[in-house]
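Dear support,

Our group has been running a series of protein-ligand predictions, and this particular one with zinc ion is the one our PI (initials K.S.) wants archived with full inputs and outputs. We had some confusion internally about which version of the output was final, so please treat the block below as the authoritative record. The input we submitted was:
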Amino acid sequence: MISRDVLVEACDKELQAERFKDYTVNGLQVAGADRVARVMSGVTASQALLDEAVAWQADLLLVHHGYFWKNEPVAITGMKRRRLATLLAHDINLLAYHLPLDAHPTLGNNAQLAHRLGFEFERSIDGELGSGLLWLGACPGGTKTNELAILVNEKLGRKPMVIDGHDGLIERVAWCTGGAQDMIAAAADAGAQAFISGEISERTTHQAREMGISYIAAGHHATERYGVQALGAWLAERFDIEHRFVDIDNPA
Ligand SMILES: [Zn+2]
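Confirmed final output from the archive:
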């Protein structure tokens, strides 16, 4: 068991949460119990994940997608009320990190995805390592688009949607987890022959074909499962807490 404030401060510091301009609050979003013994992690603080946290008697829920997004209705009604009521009734802390958890050099979603897929990091295209979100690296040995898609399918356990925009060998790949399909132009400009992100828009198909870059939509949820798990494991190594990751299936 550990003090909630000590745990939150350690995460804030490790992820350099205050450095990011974000669409939501990074850090403690809803305060619950002062002491924490059980940390449950998950991608999104959906009702299904909250119910799992209640059943496991978690003291803290650690997520990538929390609440209080810019432009969301502020009134606490309906779905939002039910979610907050669940947290408050069971004294569960909600700790959320969005962009800081995408960008972290080792624990972040991009770093963890690269690790899973065996990419060798070269540089971050849109900022220095630690704040940049679009990463570039080598596919060891080079590969064709269809082989890369098979690798993604195998490693993430989800069939990706593939736009085969590049005919030849893929030696350099760019990636950004989540809903980053519009970074495809920056990825192509930086010399990548393939770009991997989570979601796809109608326009992404044409961009890929016309810019000669293959696009792999590997799933917003599927690409962002690994950062919170790494952060939860990092916490369990340092503090006297139990950590458990719960995957709430999401095909998007
Ligand atoms: Zn996301």
